Amino acid sequence: MESISLPNFNHIYKDRSIFLTGASGLVGKVVVEKLIHALPGVNTIFILIRASRGKSGAERWKEIEKMELFNRIRRDCPDRLSKVVPVEGDITLPDLGISTTDMRRILEETSVVMHCAATVRFDEPLAAAVEINMRGATRVVSLAHRMPKLECFLHCSTTFVNADKVGHPIEEKVYPAPCDPHKLMEASDWMPDSLYGAIGEEASKAYSNTYCFTKALSEAESVCNEESRNRFDLPYLQHLVVDEAASLPTIIFRPAIIAGVWKDGIPG
C-alpha cells in the first residue's frame, strides 16, 4: 500500500493555544497525541479533565500520558509533553467548573476550541445524554464567545445525526432539527423521569439510540420567532452550534463509526 502524504498544519497552529474537551475519551486521547506530535509550534494545549474516583484531573492526565499511545512522544519529543496543561473541570457544571485562575489564562490565550466531550453510551438515559451532549455543548460555545483570540471552534459530532434520513444521499449541510432542543432541555427540569424516558424511547425509533438523538440536537437551536416556537414548527429549526456559534468561525466535524488506529501513532 502506498504511503499517504498528509498536509502540514504546523504553520497554522504556530504560537497558538488549543482548548480541548473530552481529552480522556477514546477520540480525545488520540487527538491530544496527534496535536503534540504533529504540531511542534503549538503553544499550549489546555485539556479539560474532570476529577474521578478520588483522583484529580492532573493525576488522571499523568496516568493517560503513560499509556502506550504516547510512546512515540516520549521517544521523539518528550519535551513537548509540557505543552499539555490539564484543567480540572466538568462540562456538566456552570463555566465548566473551571477555577478563576485557569479560566483567566484559557480565555486570554486560546485560539482554537475543540469540543470532543460527550457520552457515547447508546443506552444512556435521555436526561443524562441531554445534560452532557446538549447542555455541555452550549456551555462550551458560551465559553468560546468569551475568547478574544478565537480563530476556530470545532464541534465533534457524528455522521449519525442524520440517521433518520432515508431514501436519499445525505448532503453536507445542516438539516432541520427533529424538535426544539431548548424545549427538550427545559423539560428535563420538570418532567417526571418516566415520561422523559419515554421520549428517549420514542426518539430511539428514528435515531437508534439517545446518543445519536442528543448529538443531533447538540447541533440544534431554534431560530424561529416566539409564535412559531410555540407552534413547534420544525421547518424553522436550525442547528444549535450553527446558531449559537453563528458569530464564531465554526466547523462541525461528523466522523462515522470509529474503529482502531490503522498505523499513525500505534496500530489499534
Descriptive labels:
lipid biosynthesis; 6-stranded parallel beta sheet; alcohol-forming long-chain fatty acyl-CoA reductase activity; alpha/beta; two-stranded antiparallel ribbon; 39% helix; NADP; 268 residues; globular; single chain
| Oligomer state of the chains in this structure | single chain
Strand content: 5-15%
Number of helices: 11
Share in helix: 25-40%
Q: Helices and strands: which structural class?
A: alpha/beta
Low-confidence segments, ≥5 residues, pLDDT <50?
221-238
Q: What radius of gyration results from the CA coordinates? A: 19 Å
Average pLDDT, all residues: 84
Q: Termini separation (Å)?
A: 18 Å
**Biggest sheet strand line-up:** 3-2-1-4-5-8
The arrangement of helices and strands along the chain is HEHEHHEHEHEHHHEHEHE
Most strands sheet: 6 strands, parallel
Please, could you describe this protein's structure?
- This protein is α/β, with parallel strands linked by helices.
- The chain has 11 helices and 8 strands.
- The protein has helices at 10-13, 26-38, 57-64, 71-76, 100-109, 126-144, 181-190, 193-207, 210-218, 226-231, 240-244, and strands at 17-21, 44-49, 84-88, 110-115, 152-156, 221-222, 237-238, 250-253.
- The strands form 2 sheets. A 6-stranded parallel β-sheet has the order 3-2-1-4-5-8, with helices on both faces. Strands 6-7 form a two-stranded antiparallel sheet.
- α6 (126-144) packs parallel to α9 (210-218).
